[in-house]
Specification:
Blueprint: E1 4-5, H1 6-11, H2 18-26, E2 30-32, E3 35-36, E4 43-44, E5 51-53, E6 56-58, E7 65-70, E8 100-101, E9 110-116, H3 119-126, E10 134-140, H4 146-154, E11 156-157, E12 163-164, E13 168-171, E14 178-183, H5 190-197, E15 202-210, E16 213-214, E17 224-226, H6 229-236
Parallel strand pairs: 9-15
Antiparallel strand pairs: 1-4, 2-3, 2-5, 5-6, 7-9, 7-17, 8-9, 10-14, 10-15, 11-12, 13-14, 15-16
Length: 242
């Protein structure tokens, strides 16, 4: 198992700085596998070593993976001068240094956002060659015809030459103003531009799935939780080894 410095691992949990950890080690407050530590730079494994602070077991993990149900009006960024960001919504217990959204949703789009501090994981799931499908519910002001949906299924090219690959699209409501669409790309304002091209501007948009993993229906808007290991693997199963 790969090992990291003790002070880096504890500080990475988001509640302590490396300076704090060094002070606690100096005061004899930290133990690894039952032995009091004297070196904050000791290499430990988050997977196999037991770390305690003041006798309390620390549940250390190298990286964190969070499912967030994004509300409208929140930006998919780590920092913003004036707007609330998806990272701002993460409670202190889950906050990590280096936390960022793996992929973006428009400010007015709601639903599934994945946050992590694992850059390699984010690179793999965002790599265009992996084509991880993302599913959305689209709300329209006017009903869409089956012929219009078929255009989306076959793929289309805009007047500016932008080409969108084929999508899965099906009407969800009897009045045909709600559509489920699955795409394997992530171009700028893609779904809004696709529906605008068939004459049906989008009124609201919600991401409901990443890969085969659905947004937790028990997760209120603005709330988040950690992914389980099985859920993380479910998303990562679409990626290829680079």
């Amino acid at each position: 198992m790969e090992k990291e410095r003790l002070d880096k691992l504890l500080a990475g949990m988001g509640t302590l700085s490396r300076k704090d950890v060094k002070g606690m080690v100096r005061d004899g407050r930290v133990s690894v596998n039952g032995v009091t530590v004297t070196d904050a730079g000791l290499k430990v494994s988050a997977d196999t070593d037991t770390v305690c602070v003041d006798g309390t077991l620390q549940h250390i993990q190298k990286h964190i993976y969070i499912m967030l149900n994004k509300p409208a009006g929140v930006v998919s960024a780590s920092h913003a001068k004036e707007d609330t960001t998806v990272v701002d919504l993460v409670p202190p217990a889950l906050r990590r240094s280096g936390l960022f959204p793996a992929g973006r949703l428009d400010k007015d789009t709601t639903g599934f956002v994945l946050l992590t501090d694992d850059g390699d994981f984010a690179h793999r799931i965002l790599s265009p060659k992996n084509h991880i499908p993302k599913t959305y519910t689209v709300g329209l002001s006017d009903p869409v015809t089956e012929e219009q949906l078929q255009i989306l299924r076959e793929g289309l090219e805009l007047y500016d030459g932008t080409r969108f690959l084929s999508a899965q699209a099906v009407a969800l409501s009897d009045d045909r103003t709600r559509v489920r669409i699955t795409i394997c790309e992530g171009k700028y304002h893609q779904i809004k531009r696709m529906f605008a091209a068939i004459g049906r501007p989008v009124q609201y948009l919600e991401r409901t799935h990443m890969g085969s993993l659905p947004l937790d229906p028990d997760l209120p808007r603005g709330a988040c939780r950690e992914l389980t290991e099985e859920e993380r693997r479910q998303i990562e199963s679409y990626t290829q080894t680079e």
